From TrEMBL, chains A, B:
Protein name: Phosphoketolase family protein
Keyword Calcium: no
Presence of keyword Lyase: yes
GO terms under biological process: carbohydrate metabolic process
Classification via NCBIfam families: PRK05261.1-4
Keywords attached to this entry: Lyase, Thiamine pyrophosphate
Cofactor: thiamine diphosphate
GO MF, any single term: aldehyde-lyase activity
Pfam families: XFP (PF03894), XFP_C (PF09363), XFP_N (PF09364)
Family per record: Belongs to the XFP family.
Domain Xylulose 5-phosphate/Fructose 6-phosphate phosphoketolase N-terminal residue range list: 16-377
Length: 806, 806
C-alpha cells in the first residue's frame, strides 16, 4: 500500500482556494447533469431559454439525495488524486442514480463504456434522454453504472457489500454512503458490526459516510431527528471513531468536508500501517473512522415552490418541480435552478466539460468508476481446485446403499483444500453453523475470523481466520455478494429454512447478474454458491420453524440463464457438483443436501456421469428389464437425499414383495433438467424426457421441496397429468426423521401404496401389499411418546441389491 | 394502571432473605425440570439412583440459555406479585423452551392447558417424556407453550413482537429476553429503535433484557466479547437507560437482579405516570430502561466434563453431558447435577411442587403464562367495519372499463373509517409508503407515530398518531405480528417486491397459525393482512429491483387452512375483499393490487358476487353466446389488475376485428379457488372448474405473478396441458407500463397472437390479425429513447362494451 506523508494528509485537510474552486466546479457540473437527466430531453446546455418541449414527458428520478452524493464523490476524487489510493464508491441511496451516472460521465468512464454518450452537446442530450427512459438506463446506481457493485433499489445492503468488497483486498477502500432512510433498515443496522470481522493487516477498509439529510420519501427519519449525541453514541458503541460534518454554507462545507475526509483517511492509514508493520493483536479491534454528514435534502435545489418549503424537507425527495411542462412559473424556476450552477463555466463550446471541471478527476483505474473492483471480473482469477476424486468415497458397487456417511463432511474436506490452494481468494460464509453443517474440516485450514478478544476456551477463532461466521444470514450472504462482485470466490452455507431470511438478497443478486451478463463491458464474476443444509426433513429435532424448503420455490422462478439448483443424493455427487459450480461464472448455484449420515449410492465414476447428465435411471434400484423395451408399471422419481432414500426403499419393498410389478427409479440431481429446453438451458430434450419417464407410465415423483416446484417444471411436457408429486406439505414438528416423512406422505410405505394405486394394470397381490404398508404406518402411530425407546425408526434399514443389476 | 408506591419499589429492590429463598427455590425447581426434560424418561424425582434406562434414547434441547431465562422469570413473578403489574414474557432465546415450559408448569398453567400433565410424579414423568419427542412438544418456547407469542426458532423477532404486543396495551409490560446470539441478527438490531414509536401515555412498555452469556452454538458472540462500555453505548445511543447486572455468585445475583428489575420497573412507572398525568411532549422520547444481564452460559450445570470446561462456554449450548446412557461417569455427573438442586425440598411426596416453590407464583391471569395477551384471542373483539358500499364506486354498467381510478385510494378511505371506528384496536403498518401506496386517507383519521422531534414542515406526524411508518419491512411486519397475536387488528402494506424482505416472517407467522389452530386452548386471533401494492407491472419507473412478484410464489406453498390470496381487479373488488378479510381470524390474507389509476370494471353488487365466488366469467368482455351450450374458441383467463386489463383488451381486439372467433374472459380474484377442493378449502368444484374453463378449450391464462403459481394450482385438474400461462418472466427495467407487459409477453397484442395460435380450429382472418398485432409490437420497439414523447402508450384505450351484453 502507498504510505502517505503527513504533508499530503495536511494538504487534503486544508485545500487551497484553487482546489476548492475545482471541487466546486466539478460538483456544480455534476449537480447540473443530475438535474438535466431528470428534466431535459433537449437543449442540454441551455443555449436558449427552456421551452416546455425541452422537458421530458415523464419526470422521474430522485433529486433529494443527489447533491450530497456528488459532494462526497468530488472530495474523494481529490483525495485519490493526491494519494493514489485505490477506492470504490458504494451508493447506498441508490435512487441517487443520476448523480452517480453524472460523476462517471465527468470521469469519461461513462463514454468509454457507452461510446454513443459522447463528451459533447449531442452526448449530453443523449445522456439526459436515456435516463429512466424506455430503452435507456434505470434510475438507480446499478448494474449499468460503471464502478457500481450495489443496486440501491432494495435498501439495506450498502455496508455488507462494502465489507465484502474489501475482505482480502488490502489496498482498497470502499467509500460507502448510507442514506438515513437505508439506515433504518434492519440489514443495514445489522451491518455495522462488520468491523469485528475486518483484519486491518490483510483486508482493506470501509469508510462509511452516514449521510443524514433528515427525511425519507414522506417524513423524517429516526436518526435525522434524534439528538446528535445519541446518534454518535450508537456508532461509537459499534466501535467507530465518528467524525461529524454539518451545514449547507458554501464554500465552508467544502473546507469542512475536505478536513473530515482527510482526517478519516489519515486514521485508516494509521490503523493499517500499525497492523501491517507491528502485527494485529487479538482483541484490539481498531476504532475505524466513519463520517456523519448532515446536509440539506435537495441542497442547492429550489428553496420553495409555490410558497412551500422544498429544500431541506422530504418534499425534495424525488422531483421537486413537478409541473414544468405546463406551469410557466415552474419552467422558469427550473431554468434559474440550472443556470445557478453556471453551466457556461462548466462546459466548453462543444459541450465538453472544461479542464477546470476535470481537474479533480483521477486517472485511469484510479477513477472510482473504473477501478477493477467495481467491475469484478477485472480482479478475477479461477479457483485452484483439488481433484475431488481424491476426496471421494471409493467403494464397491455391491456396497451401495449399505453404509451411511455424512455427505457434507466430504464437502468440508473439499473446502479445506480450496482454502489451502486459494489462501486469499476464497471464503466460506456461514451463520454460526459451519460445524453444525459438518463443514468443520475447513478449520484445519483456517480459523473463524474474529477481531474481538478470545479466551482459551475458544476454538479455531482468531483475527487471522478467514471462515466468516456471525449469527446473521443477512451479513453472511451480503458479504459474499460483495466478495464475488469484486472477483473472488466463496460459498454461503445456511440451514435450509433460514435461507429464506436472506432470500430477498438471493433474488436481488440474481437480478443483478441477469442484467450484468447483457452488458458487454461488465466482466464475468464468480458465481454465488449457496449450500442449504440441515434441511426440512432432518430438522426433526428442531421443529416446524426449522422445516421450510421455500428457497427452491423462490429461486426456480428466476431467470434460467442465472440459476442452477442441485439436489445431490450422496457424498460423491455433492463433490462432483461442488467441483462443477466452483468453476462457473455469473450464476447463482443452489445445492440442497442434508448433513446427517445418509446412504451412499454412487461410486465416483457413476456420480460424475450422473451429475453431469443431471438425472438418470438407477437400474440397480428397480426391477424392470431395461432391454425389453417394455415400460415399467410405475416410475418412482426422486430429487433430494431423504426422499431418494424413501424412493429406493419403496422400490425395494416392491421388488422384494411384489416382484412381478415392474418399477423404475429415476433420480434427478439438476432439478431444472426437468424443464423444457426452451424454459431452461439445462432442460432435457423431449427424447431424454421420454427415455427417463416414458410416454405413458405414471410417475410418482418424490421431491425434497414443495410439490409445486415439480408441477411447474414439468408443465408443458406431454401428458403431465400422469405426474403425482409428493413433497413437503408443511406438516412438521419436533419428532423423528421417519415421522417427518410419514407426516408428509413421502415415506416408503405411503409411496408403495401410491405406486400400486397409480399403475395402469391391476397388480396381483397389490391389495395385500398395501394392507401390509398400512399396518406399518399404524404401528408407527402407536409408538409415540410412551414408547419412545421403541419407536420404529428406519435407521437399521439397508439397501438390498437387486441381483439382476448388481 | 396501578400506581405503585415507593415502598413497594423498595421492597422489590431489597428482598428479604426469605423472599430470596423463595425465588431461589422456584429457580432451582425450574432448573431441575429443565434438566429433567432434556434427559429423563423415568424416575423424574430421583427416588432411586439414575440408571441408563431412565435416560431418553435421543437427547435434545438447549441447556445453555435456560438458567438465565428462569432467573429472569422468577424475579418477574415476584415483582408481579408485589405490584399487580400485567406482564408477558417473550423468550428470544427460543431454544430455551424447556425452561419456559417448566416455568408454566410451576405456575399450574401448563396443567390447566394440558390436563394429563398433572402436578404429581406421573405428571412430571409425562412432562419429561413428551419434551422433544414424537407426539409430544417441540423444543422451543413456541405455540404449544402457554403465554408465548414468539417462536424462538428463527431468531430476530423477539423485540418487534414485544413492541407489537404493547402498542395500545397501556397496562402491559412485555418482558423481552434477547440472547446474545439473536442480538447479532439484523432484524433484532433493527428493532431497538422501536421506542421512537412507543407512546408512554397510551402504549405499554417493553422491558428488554439483553442476556449476554457470551457464546452461541460454537463460538463467542460479538457483544459477549466487546468492551462492556461499547455495548452500553450502543443502547444508550438507541435511547435506553442501561442497567447492568453481572456475575454468577449466589445468592448475590438474586439480590442484584432484584435490584435491577426493581429499578427498571420504577423507571417505567415513572415514565408512564408522567406521560399519563402531564401528557406527552413531542420530541421528548423517554429514556426507557433496559437490563443487560451477564451470566454464565450453562450456569449451575456441570463445570467441566471429561476435563474440559463446560459452564460459561459455548460447549454448554445444547446438551452438556452427551454420553449419559453409555458412560457411567456422565450418568453419575448428571445425577449429581440434578441433586444439586435439592429436589427433595422442591417437590412433595406426591411430586407436587412445594408451597415454598409456589410462593412467588402470581395468581390467575397475572401469571405471565396465563395473561390474555399471551393467548391473543383473550383480548379479541371484532373490528367495527363501515358499510364498504358507502365508499364504493357506483356507476352504470355501461361505463365499465371507460374510466380509471386509483383503487387503493378506496382502500385508504376504508382504512380511514376503520381507524375512526376502532381507535385503539387497529393500526396500519407500512414501510414509509402509505402515501405512495395511495392509502393516505388514513391520515385524515390518524397521524404517523413519531416520538422524536418534529418541525413545521412535517405532515401528519406526531406522538399521537397510530399509522406505523419506518423504513423497515422487518419492523413493520413484526410489529403487526405482535399486535395480532395479542388480539388486535391491522394491515401490513408494502411494495410488492419488498414483501420478499420480510417473507420469512410471513412464512413463520403462517407456521405459527397452522400449529395454533390445532391447539384447543389457543384462542383465535385476528388474521395477518398483507397488501402488496406498487406491483411488478407498475414499477416501470423504479426498475428491475422493484419488479418481483415472489411473495405469491412463496405463500401458495403454505397450508391452505391459513393462507388466502386475493387479486382484485378494481376498486369495488378491493373494498369487498378487504371487508371480508378484516372479519376473518387465524389467516394470512395477501392482497396484490397496484396503486396506479386503473380501469374500473364491476359495480358494487357485481363485485360482491364476483369476489365471494372468487372467480367468474365476464360475459360482457367476451363474445360467445353463453346460452348456446357451445364452448368458445379460446378462454382468456386473468388474475391480477394489469394483466386483467390486457386480457380484456385482447378479447376486445378479437371481438372487434375477428367477431366470428368466440372468446370467453374469466377473471379470478381468489387465486386458490383454482386448486382442487382437496388441496385448498376454497378450491372450486370440478363442476365449477368445467363451467369456467370448459373441458376441452385451451385456456390462455394471463397471470400477475410467476407462471409456475398457476401451473401448480391447476395441477391435477383434467387435461391441464391446455393451460397456457403467461406471467412475469423476470424481464424488467426502468421503462413504460406498456413496455413492461410487452417484455413479458402479457400485452394485448401478444395475447391475441397466442389466442389465435391456441384455438382448435383455424380462424378465418386469424393470420391477418396476428400480422396486425405484430405490427403494433414492432411499432412499439421503434419508439424507444429517441421518440420518448411519441411512445405508443395505451392510456387512451378504453373498453368498448359488447352490445350483446351491456
Amino acid at each position: 500500500m502507498p504510505t502517505v506523508s503527513q504533508d499530503i494528509i495536511d494538504s487534503i485537510r486544508n485545500p487551497s482556494e484553487q482546489e476548492v474552486a475545482h471541487v466546486d466546479a466539478w460538483w456544480r457540473a455534476n449537480n447540473y447533469l443530475t438535474v438535466g437527466q431528470i428534466y431535459l430531453k433537449s437543449n442540454p446546455l441551455l443555449r436558449r431559454p427552456l421551452e416546455p418541449d425541452d422537458i421530458k414527458p415523464r419526470l422521474l428520478g430522485h433529486w433529494g439525495t443527489s447533491p450530497g452524493l456528488s459532494l462526497i464523490y468530488a472530495h474523494a476524487s481529490r483525495l485519490i488524486q493526491k494519494t493514489g489510493q485505490e477506492m470504490i464508491y458504494i451508493t447506498g441511496p441508490g435512487h441517487g442514480g443520476p448523480a452517480i451516472v453524472a460523476a462517471t460521465y465527468l470521469e469519461d468512464t461513462y463514454t468509454e463504456c457507452f461510446p454513443d454518450i459522447t463528451q459533447d452537446e449531442e452526448g449530453l442530450r443523449r445522456l439526459f434522454r436515456q435516463f429512466s427512459a424506455p430503452g435507456g438506463i434505470p434510475s438507480h446506481a446499478s448494474v449499468t453504472t460503471p464502478g457500481s457493485i450495489n443496486e440501491g433499489g432494495e435498501l439495506g445492503y450498502a455496508l455488507v457489500h462494502g465489507f465484502g468488497a474489501v475482505f482480502d483486498n488490502p489496498n482498497l477502500i470502499a467509500l460507502t454512503v448510507v442514506g438515513d432512510g437505508e439506515a433504518e433498515t434492519a440489514p443495514l443496522e445489522g451491518s455495522w458490526k462488520s468491523i469485528s470481522f475486518l483484519n486491518p493487516a490483510r483486508d482493506g477498509a470501509v469508510l462509511p459516510v452516514l449521510h443524514l439529510n433528515g427525511a425519507k420519501i414522506a417524513s423524517p427519519t429516526v436518526q435525522g431527528r434524534k439528538d446528535p449525541d445519541e446518534v454518535r453514541r450508537i456508532y461509537e458503541g459499534h466501535g467507530y471513531d465518528v467524525i461529524e460534518v454539518e451545514g449547507s454554507d458554501l464554500p465552508g462545507m467544502h473546507y469542512r468536508f475536505a478536513d473530515a475526509l482527510g482526517e478519516a483517511y489519515s486514521k485508516i492509514q494509521s490503523i493499517q500501517h500499525t497492523a501491517r508493520t507491528e502485527g494485529v493483536i487479538q482483541g484490539r479491534r481498531p476504532r475505524w473512522p466513519m463520517i456523519i454528514l448532515r446536509s440539506p435534502k435537495g441542497w442547492t435545489g429550489p428553496t420553495t415552490v409555490d410558497g412551500v418549503q422544498i429544500e431541506g424537507t422530504w418534499r425534495s425527495h424525488q422531483v421537486p418541480l413537478s409541473g414544468v411542462r405546463d406551469n410557466p412559473d415552474h419552467l422558469r424556476q427550473l431554468e434559474e435552478w440550472m443556470r445557478s450552477y453556471r453551466p457556461e463555466e462548466l462546459f466548453d463550446d462543444a459541450g465538453r466539460p472544461t479542464d477546470a471541471v476535470r481537474a479533480i478527476n483521477p486517472s485511469g483505474e484510479w477513477r472510482m468508476s473504473a477501478h477493477p473492483a467495481g467491475n469484478g471480473g477485472g480482479q478475477y482469477s479461477p479457483l485452484e481446485l483439488p481433484d475431488w476424486r481424491s476426496l471421494a468415497i471409493d467403494f464397491d458397487p455391491a456396497e451401495r446403499g449399505r453404509f451411511r456417511d455424512e455427505s457434507t463432511a466430504y464437502l468440508g474436506r473439499l473446502l479445506e483444500q480450496i482454502y489451502r490452494l486459494n489462501p486469499t481468494t476464497f471464503r466460506l460464509f456461514c451463520p454460526d453453523e459451519t460445524n453444525s453443517n459438518r463443514l468443520g474440516a475447513v478449520f484445519n485450514a483456517s480459523d473463524r475470523t474474529f477481531m474481538e478478544s478470545t479466551t482459551e476456551e475458544d476454538v479455531k477463532l482468531s483475527a487471522d481466520g478467514r471462515v466468516m461466521e456471525v449469527l446473521s444470514e443477512h451479513l453472511t450472504h451480503g458479504w459474499l455478494e460483495g466478495y464475488c462482485l469484486t472477483g473472488r470466490h466463496g460459498m454461503f452455507a445456511s440451514y435450509e429454512a433460514f435461507g429464506m431470511v436472506s432470500v430477498s438478497q438471493t433474488v436481488q443478486h440474481t437480478k443483478w447478474l441477469k442484467e450484468a451478463i447483457d452488458i458487454d463491458w461488465r466482466e464475468s464474476v464468480p458465481s454465488l454458491n449457496i449450500l442449504l443444509s440441515s434441511t426440512a426433513w432432518r430438522n426433526d429435532h428442531n421443529g416446524f420453524s426449522h422445516q421450510g424448503p421455500g428457497v427452491l420455490s423462490t429461486i426456480v422462478n428466476m431467470q434460467g440463464r442465472i440459476v442452477r439448483t442441485y439436489l445431490p443424493p450422496d457424498a460423491n455427487c455433492l463433490l462432483e457438483v461442488s467441483d462443477y459450480i466452483f468453476r462457473t461464472k455469473d450464476r447463482v448455484n443452489v445445492i440442497v443436501q442434508d448433513k446427517q449420515p445418509q446412504f451412499q449410492w454412487l461410486t465416483p465414476d457413476e456420480a460424475h456421469a450422473h451429475c453431469r447428465k443431471g438425472f438418470g435411471i438407477w437400474d440397480w434400484a428397480g426391477n424392470e428389464d431395461l432391454g425389453s423395451g417394455a415400460d415399467p408399471d410405475i416410475v418412482i422419481a426422486c430429487a433430494g437425499d431423504v426422499v431418494t432414500m424413501e424412493a429406493v426403499a419403496a422400490a425395494q419393498i416392491i421388488r422384494q414383495r411384489l416382484p412381478h410389478m415392474k418399477v423404475r427409479v429415476v433420480n434427478v440431481v439438476r432439478l431444472q433438467t426437468l424443464s423444457r429446453p426452451k424454459d431452461h438451458p439445462t432442460g432435457m430434450s423431449d427424447q431424454d424426457f421420454a427415455e427417463a419417464f416414458t410416454d405413458t407410465t405414471d410417475v410418482l415423483f418424490c421431491f425434497h421441496g414443495y410439490a409445486g416446484v415439480i408441477h411447474q417444471l414439468v408443465h408443458g411436457r406431454p401428458d403431465v397429468d400422469r405426474f403425482h408429486v409428493r413433497g413437503f406439505q408443511e406438516e412438521g414438528t419436533t419428532t423423528t426423521p421417519f415421522d417427518m416423512v410419514v407426516r408428509n406422505k413421502t415415506d416408503r410405505y405411503s409411496l408403495v401404496i401410491d405406486a400400486i394405486n397409480n399403475t395402469r394394470r391391476t397388480i396381483r397381490g397389490g391389495a395385500d401389499l398395501k394392507r401390509w404398508c398400512e399396518t406399518q404406518l399404524e404401528r408407527h402411530e402407536e409408538y409415540k411418546v410412551e414408547h419412545l425407546e421403541d419407536m420404529p425408526e428406519i435407521l437399521d434399514w439397508a439397501f438390498e441389491p437387486n441381483p439382476a443389476y448388481s
